[in-house]
Known about the structure:
By secondary structure, this protein is mainly alpha-helical. The protein contains eleven helices and three strands; from the N terminus they run H-H-E-H-H-H-H-H-H-E-E-H-H-H. Strands 1-3-2 form a three-stranded mixed β-sheet. Helix 1 packs parallel to helix 7, helix 4 packs parallel to helix 10 and helix 4 crosses helix 11. The longest helix is centred in the middle third of the chain and has 17 residues. It is globular, with a radius of gyration of 16 Å.
Amino acid sequence: LIPAGLTLLYKVPFVHPLSTLMMRDLATLEGYDRRWTSLDKMGTLIQYSVVMSEDGQFCAHDGIDWAALNLVINDALSGEKARGASTIPMQTVKNLYLWQGRSFLRKGLELPLAVYLDLVLSKRRILEIYLNIVEWGPNIYGAEAAAQHYFGRRASELTRRQAALLAVTLPNPLERNPAKPSGGLNRLAANIEQRARKAGGYVGCLKP
């Protein structure tokens, strides 16, 4: 019931949620760097890059990309290597309410919470929360803090390549450094940069 109530509270624009990892950093006295920034002030480059990298069907699904999830289940049943099927709403509820690491229990809680989040909040609000709580490095949370930490500029001032590099860092932010990308990370970023340029209807729900 706590996530259900908090999700309703997070509809209010001036409420700035904390993630479970941010609360851990506070509890351990490590502290963190997070600079809440609205989507309007963040600019579209980082928004489109993250959506096209993390969840290309973000504007079309109801919190869960059922087609991608079915592929993962079929692969698992066939003994193939698991692939990711987490949507931005799923990652958002994980960061807000649940714990890190892989487990069937967490995933079982994550799915209904993601559907509920998508039902209660607008797509813009979900992405705004996600881009302000997602971990982008040790004790670094959100696009604004990441942009300033790695590139010394505001999120709204990022180049297309810098936004793409930040986006492809997200699957493994503790090991990938967008300011010092490997050849593989640069290739991923180039692909996302092109996809973000042609995002079109894929990001229609993010228009003000």
